[in-house]
Structure formats: C-alpha cells, structure tokens
Amino acid sequence: MKSLRQLASSFRHAASRMPEAIAAELEDQGKAIEADAKSLFGTYQDGWRELAASTQAERMRLGFTPDDPLFRSGGLRDTVTHKVEGNSVFVGVEPGTMIEGPDGQEVDAAMVMGVQEHGSTDGRVPARPVFGTVAAHADRFRKAALIGVMARTGLGHVR
C-alpha cells in the first residue's frame, strides 16, 4: 500500500465481501470436514479396539470384508453430511435418516452413529469415535477457513 487511503479502501472492499466470503468458506470447510469424517470409516484409528473375532466371522458370513471397522456397505458413512447455518457449519448424521440395519430393518442412522461414536452402555460395542477424531483436527480447519476468508476478500494480498 502506498497510502493510508489505499489501505482504508482495501479494508472497505474486504468488508463488503466478508459475508459472501465467510459463507463460501464455511461451505468449503464443511465439505472438507465431511470428507475427513467419511475417510475414517473402514480404517482403524488410534485407540480403536480391533473387531472381535465373532464380529469378523459374522461380517464374512454376511459377505462383507472381515476387518473394516464401521464399514460394511457404506450406508452409515454415506449418511454423514454437512450443513451451513449462519456463521456455523455442522457435520454429522441428521436424526431421522434411516439406513438398513443388520437384521434388514430400517434404523435411525444418527442413533447407530451415536452408539458407534461413544460405545454401548453394556460395553459390547466399543467406542469408535469418528467425529471426536475429526474434532482433534479442528485447528487445521479453523486455520484453513481464516486463510480462505482472507483470500476471498482480498486481505491476503494487503501489504
């Protein structure tokens, strides 16, 4: 910048573009967080217990791979979505989204995901946190969002 007037003009221009930049960046970060969450299905994460031998045998009997935690047909993974509301982005499974359960009956995917995320109260299903794991990457997404908003408004080029 050659003058304070040019700097002020750059700030005014950036301010006028801020709402649009934030909305676009939240959408992009929502997509990235959703993809990050979906990538965890079928892959062991730190702290996840191995599938029990009985679970592996049942998976094979049903025609699935034996050792891909949280992944059979991809139905549960595919219910993970993102939504931007105001200045927030939500990533998760919308309550009321139905998937086919292991017995062929429809079940609420959000309830299934809740049990998978936190484990069952009887201890038969160990916790396999997907969203807890993604939350550990929150700083990376916040930094990317800030850089993205700055670039979209032109503030990334102010010198």
Name the descriptors:
single chain, 159 residues, mainly alpha, two-stranded antiparallel ribbon, two-stranded antiparallel sheet, 6 helices
Q: How would you sum up this structure, described in words?
A:
This protein is mainly alpha-helical. The chain has one domain (20-151). Helices cover 50% and strands 11% of the residues. It has six helices and four strands. The protein has helices at residues 4-39, 53-61, 75-78, 109-118, 131-135, 138-153, and strands spanning 80-85, 88-93, 98-100, 106-108. The strands form two sheets. It has a two-stranded antiparallel sheet. The radius of gyration is 21 Å and the shape is elongated. The model has no long low-confidence stretch (mean pLDDT 91).
